[in-house]
């Protein structure tokens, strides 16, 4: 009986120390880190490119823009990346009505025409056509030399 009374008394003292129901407990939302694949931040512009035939596909955060000498340019709204392990996929319908699917895989890639190596392999499916190539952040491609790895330059500490 004494144990039961002691337990009840302890519970009452704990309740009196706890915040009242009127007090809001502050919570902070932690933002999820941007999706990355092989060190490439997929929330930033990414470019995929291929040879024979020459083509490129820009993922700019709003649109997926495919360009080649023929048939020209195709656009589709860029959905959020679906990342599973070492693969990221983007699927949408192009401006001409055909399905457009972009698959990026975290495997080193050579375009076969230069001495550059890219961090991602790209597969672009446009309707019945399948194109393979390489990909990296657009910033890395624009700043890379004629040979070696295509990687983004380190950002200065802020």
Task: Describe the 3D structure.
There is one protein chain. With 158 residues, the protein is mainly beta. It is built from 2 helices and 14 strands, in the order H-E-E-E-E-E-E-E-E-E-E-E-E-E-H-E. The strands form 3 sheets. It has a 9-stranded antiparallel beta sheet with strand order 6-5-4-3-13-12-9-8-7. Residues 1-18 have low confidence and may be disordered.
Helix content: 10-25%
What's the Cα radius of gyration?
26 Å
The amount of beta strand, in percent, is 35-45%
**Secondary-structure element order, N to C:** HEEEEEEEEEEEEEHE
Strand order of the largest sheet: 6-5-4-3-13-12-9-8-7
Total count of helical runs of at least 4 residues: 2
- Give the averaged pLDDT, no decimals: 83
By DSSP, the count of extended strands is: 14
Main beta sheet strand tally, sense and closure: 9 strands, antiparallel
- What is the subunit arrangement here? single chain
> What is the rounded distance between the termini?
65 Å
Q: Which class do the helix and strand fractions yield?
A: mainly beta
Keywords:
single chain, 158 residues, mainly beta, nine-stranded antiparallel beta sheet, three-stranded mixed beta sheet, 14% helix, disordered N terminus
Secondary structure elements and pairings:
Layout (H helix, E strand, L loop, with lengths): L1 H16 L18 E2 L2 E2 L4 E5 L4 E5 L3 E5 L5 E5 L4 E3 L2 E7 L5 E7 L3 E2 L4 E4 L1 E7 L2 E9 H6 L3 E3 L9
Parallel strand pairs: 11-14
Antiparallel strand pairs: 1-2, 3-4, 3-13, 4-5, 5-6, 7-8, 8-9, 9-12, 10-11, 12-13
